[in-house]
Structures are given as C-alpha cells and as structure tokens.
C-alpha cells in the first residue's frame, strides 16, 4: 500500500500524464501519485502558483523539461514543502538569445499553422537520432501533443518559458535528496546542463541514460523508472 508524501509529477511542453505511464504503476507501489495540471499560466511563476494551490502540504516533486523549470520555481518559494526532488531533462539556465529566437519562431509557427506538420519535425529534434523513424513513439508523442495538451496550451507554455528566471543562484540552497536524469543524446537540454545542476546541489545524484534523447520517460522507460524508485527509496546524503 502506497504511504507517505505523494509524488507530484509535472510534465513538459506538449506532454501530459501519458509521459509517465510506464513510471506511475511502479511509483504507486511506494507512494501515492499526483499529476500536476500545468496547462494554464502565462509564466513559469503562474504555472507554479496554480500547481501549488492544488497540492498537498508536503510532497515529492518530479519535473520533466519545462516541468523542471516549474519545479525549480517551486523550490525557490516553498522548499520546506518538498521532501524530495527529481529533475528530468531540464536546465536551470534561462534561454540565451539564440534559444529565445528559436522559441519565438515556434510560437509564431504554432499560432499561424493549424496543421499537425510541426509535430513530426519537433519529435525528430527531441528523440535520440536512432529513434527519429520510430512511428510508434511518434504516435505516442502526437497523442499527447494534440489530444491531451492542444495547440493553445503549447503556445502558452512556450510564452511562459521565454522569460523564465535564472534558477542557478538558488540551486545551492536545495538540501533535499535530489535525482537528476538526462539522456546521453539529449539535444534540447544536453547532459552538461544536468551536470551543472548536480554540481550545485549537494544532496544530488546524476544519472545519464545511454541511447536516449530528451523524452527519456518514453524512450528509456525502465531506466527512468529504476532511477526514480532508487531516489524514492534511498536516504541520499550529500556527495
């Protein structure tokens, strides 16, 4: 029976609870699971506010990609409510000029184009190059992006991330056990960004997942599940 503080999962842009379908049953054996509703909010701070209003007094926090930006904002505000933290495929840095321009271009394209053609292009950027022709995985991603999230929420997410704060100054203040996961072939948030986070959080453990791009929970589900279970069930001490 699942007991203790629940595990609160925050998906990323174009992602829903489906992202964690392989992890949820395993986590439920140890802790209750909650999926954050991250679909509304014009900034990372607003999304964090909305999630916190619907969250229990204490929880374990898992953030994927944009969900990691939100998780770090939650840590900045109410770290005393977070028992453990896991950051998957994310960054503590704000966008640089090139990234901001690319994000603005995606916003313009999404706002103007009512077709699904962008989904396959984005999918090919997200996954390990060995998986760019994986039609099953593409179908899964399309289902999340189109059926679960939708264009309007995706545009809101992109706008919210444009002006996100630099979370690096707050990392050293995080003292709870922290798992940091990243795909070895992640081209969106490369391993160096996770290494930077791990170096700044004393009680952290970094896992680099081989043969994996940005969408680690669905590209290498077993590796992500095992890393999260190890995090949940361990009494991590500062390294």
From TrEMBL:
Tell me one Pfam family matched here.
Abhydrolase_6
Q: Which organism is it from?
A: Rhizobium leguminosarum bv. viciae
Q: What is this protein called?
A: Alpha/beta fold hydrolase
Hydrolase among the record's keywords? yes
The AB hydrolase-1 domain covers which part of the protein? 50-226
Q: Name one GO molecular function term.
A: hydrolase activity
Keyword terms, alphabetized: Hydrolase
């Amino acid at each position: 029976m699942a007991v203790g503080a629940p595990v609160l999962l925050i998906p990323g842009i174009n992602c829903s609870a489906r992202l964690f379908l392989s992890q949820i049953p395993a986590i439920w054996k140890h802790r209750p699971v909650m999926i954050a509703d991250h679909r509304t909010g014009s900034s990372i701070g607003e999304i964090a506010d909305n999630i916190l209003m619907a969250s229990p007094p204490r929880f374990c926090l898992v953030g994927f990609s944009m969900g990691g930006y939100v998780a770090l904002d939650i840590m900045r505000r109410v770290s005393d409510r977070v028992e453990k933290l896991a950051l998957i495929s994310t960054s503590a840095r704000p966008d640089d000029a090139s990234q901001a321009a690319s994000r603005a271009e995606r916003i313009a394209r999404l706002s103007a184009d009512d077709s699904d053609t962008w989904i396959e292009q984005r999918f090919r950027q997200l996954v390990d190059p060995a998986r760019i022709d994986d039609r099953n995985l593409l179908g899964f991603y399309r289902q999340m992006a189109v059926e679960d999230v939708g264009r309007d929420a995706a545009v809101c997410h992109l706008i919210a991330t444009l002006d996100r704060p630099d979370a690096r100054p707050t990392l050293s203040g995080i003292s709870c056990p922290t798992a940091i996961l990243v795909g070895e072939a992640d081209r969106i948030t490369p391993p160096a960004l996770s290494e930077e986070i791990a170096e700044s959080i004393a009680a952290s453990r970094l896992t680099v997942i081989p043969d994996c791009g940005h969408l680690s929970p669905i590209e290498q589900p077993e590796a992500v599940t095992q890393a999260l279970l190890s995090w949940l069930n361990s009494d991590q001490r500062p390294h």
